[in-house]
Amino acid sequence: MSQDNPRIAILGFAIECNRFSPVTTAADFEQDVDIRGNRIVSEARSGASITMPDLPGFFTEMDRTGNWTPVPLRVSLAQPGGPVEEGFFRDYLSEIEAGLKAVLPLEAVFISSHGAALAQGTDDPDGDLFEIVRRVVGPDTPVIAVFDLHANVSRRMIDNISVFVGYLENPHTDIHERGVEAARHMRECLAGARTVVEMVKVPIVPPQISLLTARGPYADLIKYGQTKVGDDILNVSVMAGFAYSDSPKNGLTAVVTARNGAHQAAADLALDIATRAWNTRERFKRAMMSLGDAVQLAVSVGRDRRRKPIILADVADNPGGGGRGNTTYLLRALKSAGAQDVIFGVFNDAALAQKAHSLGEGAIFTASLNTQEHQEFSLPFDCEAKIVKLSDGRYVGRRGVLRNVSSDMGPSALLDLGGIQVVVISNRCQCMDPRQFEMFDLDIARARVVVVKSRGHFRGGFDEFFKPEQIYEVDCPGLTSPVLANFTWTKLPRPVYPLDEETTWTPPRAP
Fold it and tell me: What pLDDT, on a 0 to 100 scale, did the predictor assign at position 510?
């Protein structure tokens, strides 16, 4: 092959790891996405891919801009969870290394990544992967990767890639566009562009609920960085990181890719952004609503139709951050208070979903929620329920992060608990697309209260129904509680702000 028809290896490894969650196994990847070879190409060009949207975005732009030959290896994705089991990750690395060697020579490599992975035996699996890729393909082959803006960034990661492309939006409604951007950078690199990547990290580990990009301190940093893109600056990515990884890599990181070998320009801009973050650190504090106040509000909204409907976000049990999606604190309290006209979802309980499917639609029974998992926050709850509707749980998202993404919640059921309608699923995932309710004929626009087990991605899917002032984040116990003092940290660099108010930072000297 030649530069007129470059051969580009395609691979992916994406998971957001919460050190406090159960270990992520091979079965978790198999349940989500673990595909090889031509299946990767067909999914990327399908129009409703099961992969992360950056992969279809990359393919779309590469196809549009000229000839190229994808060389698909393996794409492995799993729902956020605990560290990846060592055997699975080592096997993945071995397969990628052997696969790359078998298809040499290559003109480039594209990696659909995330950046907040952990694995048993390593705190930097992303760095491990990129180091292997670079070692096999050599120092001059373009290697471009796309990252979630919750990536925890290491020097090993940036030293082994040519262009670092981070998401710009949270909720992550721009993943497809970042794949398109990566393809544009790929074309430039293939044409001979010389790139450098620089980073500066600051000791800020923000609560995840303070990282929305419509407005706020994080939005301001990202927007500022984008004003600097152009001339020598190829890409600016401000990575807030993922606190629950409890990783030595934690800390807000400014990452700048420059063209023309402009090392100094990249380093200066990364330092500028990091300093701005530090100087505005107090803005990353964010208050939540207490459980009692949230329930009282829900009851009031249900009774008084003059009030605007609301969303209650159970942010501490967010499967999108490693939560199990099955805590019952908020559900119990709403039921006990007699809340009405509530839609609640999605509740992860495969045993309960199976029970509902065995009984059939219309059956009335005692629903035993959360009887299978036994961990700190998974308390059981029994309640009389009617089975309203059953589903296989498959859908194509229509808005926000999951737009045009094929998803599978597994055998699922809509249960009516008497004024509270709960969507119960078998495959753990967060609630972030209206189709997760609409597939059960629920009319979101008519509901008075919607409860979502999600941290923030629901905002990109439900914004047609609820404005920001109608959304309340509820302070409940859980594996993804934004109250970072609730956790026993073992590897998080200390001190960090705002967990440690006394944290200081001295900006590094310019190189």
Answer: 64
Q: What SS3 class is residue 347?
A: strand
Tokens of 442: 């629920």
The pLDDT, as a whole number, for residue 2 is: 60
Domain boundaries, the chain: 7-284, 289-481
Model confidence pTM above 0.90: yes
Q: Quick one: pLDDT band at residue 374, thresholds 50, 70, 90?
A: confident
Q: CA-to-CA distance for 111 and 317, rounded, in angstroms?
A: 29
Q: If you average pLDDT over residues 242-251, what whole number do you get? A: 97
**C-alpha radius of gyration, the chain, whole number:** 23
Which phi and psi angles does 271 have, rounded to 5°? -65, -40
In this structure, what token pair is assigned to residue 194? 């010389």
Q: What tokens were used for 92? A: 């993945």
Contacts of 243 (CB under 8 A, 6+ apart): 205, 206, 207, 208, 250, 484, 492
Both tokens of 361, joined, read 């639609």
Residue 4: other Cβ atoms inside 10 A: 9
Fill in the amino acid letter for 424. Answer: V
Beta bridge partners of residue 412, listed in sequence order: 391
Residue 288 token pair: 């939540």
Summarize the confidence of residues 85-89 as an average pLDDT.
98
